[in-house]
Amino acid sequence: MKLAILGGGGFRVPLVHGALLGDRGAGRVTRVVLHDVDAGRLRAVSRVLGEQAAGVSDAPEVITTTDLDEALRGADFVFSAIRVGGLEGRAHDERVALAEGVLGQETVGAGGIAYGLRTVPVAVGIARRVARLAPDAWVINFTNPAGLVTEAMSHHLGDRVIGICDSPVGLGRRIARVLGAQPDEAWIDYVGLNHLGWVRGLRVAGQDQLPRLLADPALLGSFEEGRLFGADWLRSLGAIPNEYLHYYYFNREAVRAYQQAERTRGAFLRDQQENFYAGTADPDASALELWDRTRAEREATYMSENRETAGAGEREADDLSGGYEKVALALMRAIARDERATLILNVRNRGTLSPLDEDAVIEVPCLVDANGAHPVSVDPLPGHAVGLVCAVKAVEREVLAAARSGSRATAVKAFALHPLVDSVSVARRLVDAYTAVHPGLAYLGR
User: Fold this and answer.
1) Which helix (H) or strand (E) holds 348?
2) Which of 51, 109, 156, 190 could form a disulfide with 127 if both were Cys (CB 3.0 to 4.6 A apart)?
3) CA separation for the pair 103, 256 (Å, rounded)
4) How much is the pLDDT for 323?
5) Distance (Å, whole) CA 14 – CA 19
């Protein structure tokens, strides 16, 4: 079975490869094609994978290419994890927004909109080529903003594109651990959009254990989201939010912390990864050991400004091991082998959430089999969540419309309608600034 990884020179590719090395049985991936526009990054990651596979006799064959069509032809699965504009582009997204006093995070607020505007046209082009060159392939999208990009690709691939994210998995795992339950034996009632969701229940043997958690301040203070949001706020919500909702619920504090930081997150990752990729050129150094050290630092500093603002302390050791590669592997196995699984995924709504239309991509538990991912019916959202989900989905639709039409006015509308952008005048200045620094936004007219 052939897996094409787009963004194959990306830093997190070894996580996916490591998961594949441990997979056994029929229907496993036997050939991995890494595609990237940067041949140097492909060489670096290929070195890491070679060291990872040392001693594994049946490791998948790994091929690298800068030819997208070559990567796609004959693929059974396509894993998309591209970054249009690179980490320098992310750093620009953050700085431009923070200069206007609004959030510039990669997927939330102004930064997420800018990233989406330059990524959607590229993702749509990929979707069209997949439909032409590998019409039977399943596309697993991890490219951010994951929900928005998955929805853009679904217009050309239908239900054969499925978005994944490790945030809900990590949240569910932490809650289960605190409650003394095995994550694999718990049903996680999670609902929302990508990076905008809530755990509303965690059932073990048919019993919802979340009320016990919400009633116990000591338990709430024993895991990351409990410390990040505070016990009183979580009890008010009656749910545990995805960590990214900290940018909404504590926006002023988050913006201040990011403005005061020595470097933005994008600038930190850019500098860190430049050192990693340069270091892999040393033939006497272990590329895998260098990657491991770099990854550990990356994970330990994730959302560090938010945790510092909330006094949440350091990340738990169990939360430093990633997770999206496990979701990707479980998804591929369920489809390729018809091994039914329940996973939290980004899929088309299909009537699951009544405030949104059929084609809106949402993030909910899904039953997965050989026919793909099927969203599970969920209870209606509470009023506070309905407002936020509908507002952000409306913004995503304006981003899609701007990417389709090239309309600058529609791009301004996307920024202005976002709950974390507080002025139409700010929205106009953001569009002016982003188009000035991003060649990928040259398509937006006047």
Assistant:
1) strand 341-348
2) 156
3) 9
4) 78
5) 9
The alpha carbon dihedral of 361, 363, 367, 368 has a sign of: positive
Distance separating alpha carbons of residues 416 and 438, to the nearest angstrom: 19
Question: Contact 160/440 with Cβ under 8 angstroms?
Answer: no
CA angle 334, 335, 336 (to 5 degrees): 100
d(CA 136, CA 22): 26
Long-range pairs for 281-284 at CB < 8 Å and ≥24 separation? 281/44
Q: In whole angstroms, what is the distance from residue 156 CA to residue 443 CA? A: 21
Grouping H, G, I as helix, E, B as strand and the rest as coil, residue 122 is helix
The residue type of 421 is V
CA dist 23 → 63, 310, 389 (Å): 19, 39, 37
CA separation for the pair 362, 393 (Å, rounded): 9
Q: Where are the alpha helices (DSSP H) in 356-407?
A: 383-405
Q: What is the DSSP letter of 445?
A: -
CB atoms within 10 A of CB 358: 9
Global pTM reads 0.95
